[in-house]
Amino acid sequence: MLANLLLAWFAQHARALPWRQSRDPYQILVSEVMLQQTQVDRVLPKYAAFLATFPNLHALANAPTAEVIRAWAGLGYNRRAVNLQRAAQQVMAQYDGQFPRNVAELRSLPGIGPYTAGAIACFAFEQDVVFMDTNIRRVLQRALVGPDLQVAPPERQLLEQSATLLPSGQGWAWNQALMELGALICTARNPSCAQCPIQRVCRAYSTATPPALPRPLRRVAEGQREAYHGSRRWLRGRIIDALREQPQLSLSQLGPRLKPDYSAADEAWLRDLVVGLERDGLVAMQEDRVGLP
DNA sequence: AAGGCGGGGTG
DNA sequence: CACCCAGCCTT
Predict the structure, then answer these.
(1) What positions does the domain HhH-GPD occupy (predicted)?
(2) Nucleic strand C under 7 Å from the C-beta of A37
(3) If A100 and its partner were Cys, which of A4, A93, A105, A263 is the partner (CB 3.0–4.6 Å)?
């Protein structure tokens, strides 16, 4: 019953997202990696541009890594760009350019974990496999367990239930629909239970507690708003951004772009950041100059 | 089992 | 501000 309700709703309300129109494993791979911890709305414009620049596996595998990192601007988690290209290169080298179809082999590619391997097997090759992401987890927990997300069943258990509920031959629609419901209706905050197609069979709905009262207004602490600004993560992002514009920079050129009062005494600090980026394959250093690889 | 990794949007 | 977002990798 749950599956029937969910799939009927999905057939009516699914967004026409570009990666849903494709079964090309390369295009699916690109979309899934971009969507790791990144919202659909932010991915959409980058996705089209990326595929225009790197239309197929061959183009991506053979591109300068610097170009791939540039195409990743605005998406965050820049290591994903490096791993995506390495995955493309590995498919070319180890699989003769033909994507492996099973989850275990997909899982061996860099940057492809349990979720993405399942998603490619399902969304590109239309296999009846189950996997977990933040939307599927929340939807299944609410529907099958109840409203309290604090008492989380083991991941394995939710996956088993998903596999049991999955209508044979419709894995693609089942997983897409779970994720779509989580994105549009069964949201983390303020879910739209009134519009929910599965409310009749949802444990969280039948035992739903009234919506929490609005939080008391916090005092706006203007002074201490920034914890992220100036952090290591932020600095790494600034370095990559600078190198997207300027192919090569010396440390003494780079430093002032991160820290207005940069001096020679800061070089060890800056070098540590650069070494970290180098280890991630995001920059290359030669002599005293830094650049995208 | 934790922490690191980007960046922007939302309540 | 705290939280959220189609996770993955290293330690």
Answers:
(1) 34-184
(2) yes
(3) A105
Closest nucleotide to the alpha carbon of A31, via C1': C6
- From the Cβ of A276, is strand B under 7 Å away? yes
pLDDT tens-place string over residues A121-145: 999 999 999 999 999 999 999 999 9
Backbone angles phi, psi at A114, to 5 degrees: -60, -45
Query: Token pair of A50, please?
Result: 């990326």
Summarised one tens digit per residue, pLDDT across range A238-265 is 999 999 999 999 999 999 999 999 999 9
- Whether A105 is a known active-site residue: answer no
Neighbours of A182 (CB within 10 A): 21
Residue nearest to nucleotide B10 (CA to C1'): A189
Strand B–CB A45 distance below 7 A: no
Which backbone phi and psi does A291 adopt, to 5 degrees? -155, 170
Which bases along strand B come within 7 Å of a protein CB atom?
Answer: 4-9, 11
